[in-house]
Amino acid sequence: MAFTNSKKVKLWAERVADEMPVVKKSRPYLTQEEMKGKKYGMSYKVYIPDAGRVFDGLVANEDGVNEVEYEITLKNKGNSCSIDSWDEITNIESFDKEIVKPRAVKLAKEIQQDVIKNTFYRSAQAVVTTGAADFETLSEGAAKLREAAVAGNAVSFMSPTTMGKIAAGGLAKFIPDEEQKKIYHKAYLGEYAGASQIEVQGVPVITTPSGAATLSVSFTTADKGLEPVSTGTITNGVAGASIPFSAEGLKLVDVNGVETDQDFIVMADASGNFPELRITYPGQNFNNANAWVAEGTTSLTFVPMLSTSTKYEVNQVRIDDALAFDSYKFNKLAGVEDLGSETVDGVRVECVKGSNVKTRESLVRIDCPFACRSSRSSSICDSIR
Prior knowledge:
Blueprint: H1 5-18, H2 32-35, E1 43-48, E2 68-73, E3 75-82, H3 83-88, H4 92-119, E4 125-128, H5 135-147, E5 154-158, H6 160-168, H7 178-184, E6 188-192, E7 195-199, E8 205-207, E9 214-216, E10 221-222, E11 225-231, E12 233-235, E13 242-247, E14 251-253, E15 259-263, E16 266-269, E17 273-280, E18 291-292, E19 302-304, E20 311-319, E21 323-327, E22 337-344, E23 347-356, E24 361-374, E25 380-384
Parallel strand pairs: 4-25, 5-7, 17-18
Antiparallel strand pairs: 1-2, 3-24, 5-20, 6-7, 8-20, 9-12, 10-11, 11-17, 13-16, 13-19, 14-15, 14-18, 20-25, 21-24, 22-23, 23-24
């Protein structure tokens, strides 16, 4: 049975979106109208709202608005196939099996790895567990989010190996949810501890060196807290990964601007960089704070949370829409045939068909332009085991 290019493109988009459970239930920052004119390699800014400072009594405090901005860079990943492969197979099943599935799965996995790399280490909370994987492993991360009063549905992403070991200990403890099953398909195990439990391949693995990690951060004091900082000096960091540090007295300010008694965790990479730390003194909400310390604190001593010479698996619990994932459109390309575009679950696929007159080679190119970022660090908790 012959079928149109639009069906082929939609089939491709469905296959790509289906293989990216981490991206499902994310949210876009910008509308397609706002995305117009933005190109590969460009960046755009998004803002964290300022909850402000509450005052007592009749006299209002002079409370300015301090929206924290950060940049998101537009990226693209894609693959291609020969025109013969695209045009000659006119049976949907054969086209899906021989062309779409292997390439779409590969493309989806590469995009998902990029998303994991850029978001899993942007947590302001972390729990570290050792020993056999059990149901407590599933519940600790979700509990941290609830304590931080984060609104929304929690989603827990762990490796198939870890999830398999836990499920073997009591599959009946997972409560099914038909709506979530439709979204995550075969990756969905069920609901437990207030979170949807999802299997995901390619979670980061950290192998710590034999020497203990250290992190030194210099702070500049201000009247209402400490000036924002996002870098320090680290020793025994792990290349390609971030490791968690805690500090006595450093506590989390939740997404509503409320000071909690929950430890704030600094996730520092091998260069000593970490998501911006904005510290306030109690009741001041200085610089749209995400952490607080006792008034008068001018320095902190950071302690590593991971043991030396140990392999750890990094999983994630987040509010489902804490991941921002935007798709954008490429400009029209002269001299090629536009086969169309399709968007499925927020994932956009574009296809063009063209030839190279110098080499007489022809192909169909499939692109998936995207941008991703975690929208608020306290909506994410790394579960490290």
